[in-house]
Amino acid sequence: STLYSVPDWGKGVFSVNANGLLEVAPPNVPGAPKVPLMSILAGIKDRGMDLPVVLRIENLIDLQVSHLNQSFAAAIEAHDYQNVYRGVFPIKVNQQSQVIEEIARFGARYNHGLEAGSKAELMIAMATLTDPGSMIICNGYKDAEFVDLGLRARQLGFECFFVVETPAELDLILERAELLQVEPRIGFRAKLSTQVEGHWSEDSGDRSLFGLSANQIVNMVDRLRDTGHLEWLRLLHFHLGSQIPNIRDIRTGVAEAVRYYNELVAEGAAMGYLDLGGGLAVNYEGGDTNYTLAEYCYDVVESVAATLAEGVPHPVLISESGRATVADSSILLFNTLDVTTFEPGPIRTVTEDDAEAIQKLGEIQANVEVANAHQSFTDAIYYRDDMRESFQLGTTTLRQRALAENLCLDVMQQVKHLLPQMRRIPKELEALHQDLADIYYANFSVFQSLPDTWAMDQVFPVVPIHRLNEEPTREAILADLTCDCDGKIDLFVGGHSTLPVHSLVDGEDYVFGVFMVGAYQETLGDLHNLFGDTNVVSVRINEGGNFEIERELQGDTVEDVLSYVEYTPAGLTETFRKTAERAVRSGLIKPSQRREIVEQFRESLRGYTYYEH
Ligand code: PLP
């Protein structure tokens, strides 16, 4: 089980049992036995849904919402902080209705609210949160309609804040508030000079796209004072970036933000709320950050308390943690379709009639040992390339080229197996494992389901969810169904470029799980090669270890994805019918065959976009 670093990223929630099955055991379900993911998958298949599927475990959303709120509560108590924590979930991180509804439903006990970055997201928040005192934070560019919706939310009693991102927005808010006669709650998003490390660091620093400079903030305070509305300024917001690896950067950012907060209080603003934005990181590999959730909360509360000026009342602390709230809860499951190996095929005996380069390759192949491994490798490549060149010049045959390539591959494999015995691995041989790794073709699209592996080199834990009591005997990378050279996973936990896997067994599915995909992946996925949304199944594990399928969402059909690119199924069928009729007229097919062909076309329109058995 340590092979796939399960204990490092699984946090005790995921583990491997004696039968080699990957299991889940949400710690917030007391006494529940562990449930193998293969059992859940069998239940899904029995109900007629197939792979690939996103499996969402609702208990894990609840678990993280509790963790976040309880960790802040503990930090607040430890520091004798004189106010409360209120979390808001940023809808953009996973907008799927069952996720948002679960956060709203379970989060109600903690008063957990939502963060909206657009009109559509604000409307989700207004129609999902049912407690009138719930908090809604409005970020992003706002037009009059966005502002009006937020003012309506205020009228209904929501704790709705407009976070001003640009100076022009303030005038719009003042104008609409006057018109609708509603008192807005305003926040300023400060552009901090603190810069953070990591993939998503561009939200901080002078050149960050959003936020107000010190000078803009001063001008806007003056504008509010001049219009007699400084009391509407209630909140300071900052966001340093997502997945911040270093707690020191977070502390520095918090301290800088609190200086702004102190100054706004000194200017006479009512204030009362400090919004820390996102950034709380997730441990995808087990060592991504130098802090835990508890340490994050502890350090943030301590920094705020220590930096607030004498006499300034402690503000309500808000955070917009997205990734940390939902990443754990979703797993992408897919099956393997085929394998390409880089093993030599059967090699016939080299004879005097073969090309000279082949004679050399035959000699090398018969004599590989530790002492000459490096030399054998470079020589084999040299003679193989020699044969490839001859082939290009037309001076040798396809069969001679095939023999040369096969001999060379055999040498490479022999050398690979000798690597562990070599005292020093020469640079040229460092990538040999990777060059000879199998390619496991799997039933998914990187672009639809794991866009951050492609766009950001994000590493997600990838693990076969069964056969984990067998030694994996192969090394592989995974290729998806798109015919795109980026449609692959070749970076794994621990920085490895290949994944240990098991040989396929005839007639048996080999199923991989990609873990921690609940944040951003579903939302950012696209339709490359017209592979659509996968099936999604949301389960709840209850006491007794039963799981209940709470929601099933059928993935896109071919018809669905074609309509996204402006085809109409009716129009396509009509054109296709005509093409088939022409084939009848010209005698290529019989009318009864036409019926069959058109019927199949129509059925395929209703089919899943992924590989079906
Ligand atoms: N708040 C804002 C304004 C953001 O831009 C983001 C994402 O980058 C978040 C919150 C969520 O951040 P995270 O997923 O790191 O918690």
UniProtKB/TrEMBL annotation:
Main EC class the enzyme belongs to: lyase
Keywords of this entry: Decarboxylase, Lyase, Magnesium, Metal-binding, Polyamine biosynthesis, Pyridoxal phosphate, Spermidine biosynthesis
PTM annotation (N6-(pyridoxal phosphate)lysine): residues: K92
Annotated ranges, domain Arginine decarboxylase helical bundle: 352-432
Cofactor: Mg(2+); pyridoxal 5'-phosphate
GO MF entries: arginine decarboxylase activity; metal ion binding
Record domain Orn/DAP/Arg decarboxylase 2 N-terminal: where: 84-327
EC number: 4.1.1.19
Residue ranges occupied by any Arginine decarboxylase C-terminal helical domain in the UniProt entry: 558-611
Record-annotated active site: C483 (proton donor)
Biological processes per GO annotation: L-arginine catabolic process; spermidine biosynthetic process
Residues that span the membrane, as ranges: none
Homology family: Belongs to the Orn/Lys/Arg decarboxylase class-II family. SpeA subfamily.
Entry function: Catalyzes the biosynthesis of agmatine from arginine.
Protein name stated in the entry: Arginine decarboxylase
Organism field: Litorivicinus lipolyticus
